[in-house]
Amino acid sequence: MKHAQLFCLMLLALCLLGASHGEEAEVVTEQDLSGKHVAILVGEGFHDGETYIPMGYVANLGAEVTVIGLKPGVHKAYNSDITAKVHASVNDVSVDDFDALIIPGGHSPNWLRQHEEIVNFTRDFFNTGKPVAAICHGPQVLITAGVLEGRKATCFPAVDEEIKGAGAEYQDVPVLQDGNLITSRIPDDIPVFVKTIAKALQ
Hints:
The chain has helices spanning about 5-15, 20-30, 50-60, 110, 115-125, 140-145, 160-165, 190-200; strands spanning about 35-40, 65-70, 75, 85, 90, 100-105, 130-135, 150-155, 170, 175-180, 180-185. With about 200 residues, it is of the alpha/beta class. It has a single domain, classed as Rossmann fold (3-Layer(aba) Sandwich), CATH 3.40.50. A hairpin with a 6-residue loop joins strand 3 and strand 4 (about 85). The radius of gyration is 15 Å and the shape is globular.
């Protein structure tokens, strides 16, 4: 990825996350995710902000981040020229390696859920009870994994019928946490999405 593009995304993250004031901001700055290992599931056509802002946020709090996917390689965002490098295949890692799984949106989730090994890894990770966070179209991977029945979730509006069809209760809210499941709708929800992830990791 070009340095200028990454710099612009980091500036965006600072603007979005700098919206907190007072007591809430103090709580966020005190969080320490040192020793935590977070996996971010990425495929072709990912959303740049929904990928890099959560990645940068948890890394800034001390977490180690690994980008995982179908196989190592480089994928392009659907909404910009930004790329992301997949460090490891889901076939070469274990759910035990990570403390949380983040699934960004964009076109990537629909591409990822067509691959059995991705779906199996996601299902196995979800069933550990560790935090799984999905934003925008991200829940599509969880829908295919068959883990949303009886859960409460939100998503990009166009995915709401899929959520309901999977047996989940859809709610149109910025962030929704139901046990180990964290979901958000759109890029505007990223600030509260990442804060909820950080809190769940503690």
